[in-house]
Amino acid sequence: xxxSPLILWAILAFAAIVILANSLFVVEQRQQAIVLRFGxxxxxxxxxGQPGAGLNFKTPFVENVIKLDRxxxxxxxxxxxxxxxxxxxxxxxxxxxxxxxxxxxxYRTLRNEQIAQDRLERLVNSSLRxxxxxxxxxxxxxxxxxxxxxxxxxxxxxxxxxxxxxxxxIDLRIKRVDLPAQIQPNVFRSMQTQRxxxxxxxxxxxxxxxxxxxxxxxxxxAITLATAQQTGETTKGQGDAQRTRIFAEAYGKDPAFSxxxxxxxxxxxxxxxxxxxxxLSPDSAFFKYxxxxxxxxxx
Length: 299
Prior knowledge:
Largest sheet: 4 strands, antiparallel
CATH superfamily of the domain at 73-178: Band 7 domain
Number of helices: 8
CATH topology of the domain at 73-178: Tetrahydropterin Synthase, Chain A
CATH architecture of the domain at 73-178: 2-Layer Sandwich
Distance between the termini: 189 Å
Strand content: 15-25%
Number of strands: 9
Order of helices and strands: HEEEEEEEEHHHHEHHH
């Protein structure tokens, strides 16, 4: 008789523990929870912008809990081939960052993270084909890359909202843009030919500039030499004129000395080399200063 109450209390304690275990659950700070009643979502605990983290209660055996990540999530899309507006084929790797902004709608539409990843990947690839397909290869690689990514992000966000996915798109970026392996050699040859043409044009332009510089320098040299020669001739003429004037003035003051001086210049010109032979009469006037000295001009 004494064991029956103990067994009853043990059964009641066990039942209380089971009920309590099915009534309490913990929602971490990085999580949000959806409470399901008979499989249907009825409320959200610790939704974005709302409190609720910690110990929570639910109706045992009637309600169960699904926990979702409250943090920013990442999704890497599979490599997608895109044909640009200039008919260039490109392989694009992109990634998406998002958060679950409406857990109830997220659960109703997508159910779980795996389905959400597949749905978002198709959505991102579709937007990439549409947006990047309207741009040229150079714009996708570098020219308008940020602008195109912004357009793609807005397009994905708009489609996600229209599809009622319950997510908020945070960012969308391209990790890498490659050429398909089968066309890489042709593209590289085309790029090499283009660079060779640019190099040839640059060399031709440099050669033309060099010739123009040389011609300009030669012209300046010719002008400088002509100017210098003209200045020299003018200066020489002025000197000769001044010399002639001085000599004429000196001749007027002392004609005898001037005659003697001219004869000395004639001697210097005719006999300076040392190998000059003159056949003259001994009484020639050319030698009068040898016999009579400077005074010969007065006789």
